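Changelog note: in this version the structure field was regenerated for every chain. One regenerated record is shown below for reference.
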Amino acid sequence: MAIEKWLAVTSLGLFAMFAGEMISIYYFMTDVPEAIEFSIKFDADPKIFQFISIGVAPAGILAAVPFIMTRQYGSKPVGGLIAIGGVIMLVGMLVTYSMVDQIDDVYITDVVKYTPILFMILSIPVIVVGAYLTKEKKRRPKKEFF
């Protein structure tokens, strides 16, 4: 496999990791154990920022690099992997946004409310870029006769 395919696979994995991390922290906030609730002050904002910095930010960069490498001639496998990564992030953010109503009011902040919406919006360009790469046709090189 070429390097751009491996980069697309890595970005797909990081998109899935980010979705899983966000689902897990939102699930935790829906049912915080009493032992933790009274003994430790839990704040989700730093964790969400950490998940963004180790999950979706590198995934976006790793999706952009193969796009730049293959945008001239297109690549169905690379475009498909990038589009699937965007779909995984969109579905993961839909799941996390559906959990916001179940979270206790103590843990609701602007970051908790608006992060899933932001990344739902940001997953659309990722899907579009992946679809663009799958539709791009290879250009025939010009023949030089002399």
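Spot check on this record: Residues 3-135 form one domain. The chain has one domain: 3-135.
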